[in-house]
Design brief:
- The protein is an alpha+beta fold.
- It has a single domain, classed as Alpha-Beta Complex (Sufe protein. Chain: A).
- Helices cover about 40% and strands about 25% of the residues.
- Strands 1-2-3 form a three-stranded antiparallel beta sheet.
- A hairpin with a 6-residue loop joins strand 1 and strand 2.
- The longest helix has 14 residues.
């Protein structure tokens, strides 16, 4: 598995850490900062999920009129990792 760290922009969380296996599935997703309970739930829901599918679902989700959210920032992080 390969580990990734992403610094989100425009949201309360300050860091997103996760791993992708060789099949492109997400594991050990952790957010630093942000809405603790909600972000832990996202991590649990996405455990073992196909990363591209997860990004497609989360992309464009907004929080408080910011034009982005922690979930949207995760989608950007995944997109970046999959293009590498």
């Amino acid at each position: 598995m390969k580990q990734y760290t992403y610094k989100p922009k425009g949201v309360c969380s300050t860091q997103i850490d996760y791993e992708l296996d060789d099949d492109g599935k997400i594991y050990n997703l952790r957010f630093t900062g942000g809405c603790n309970g909600n972000l832990k739930a996202i991590g649990r829901l996405l455990e073992g999920t196909d990363a591209k599918r997860a990004a497609d679902i989360l992309r464009g989700n907004e929080c408080r009129g910011r034009g982005t959210s922690c979930a949207d920032q995760l989608a950007l992080a995944i997109d970046e990792a999959l293009q590498a």
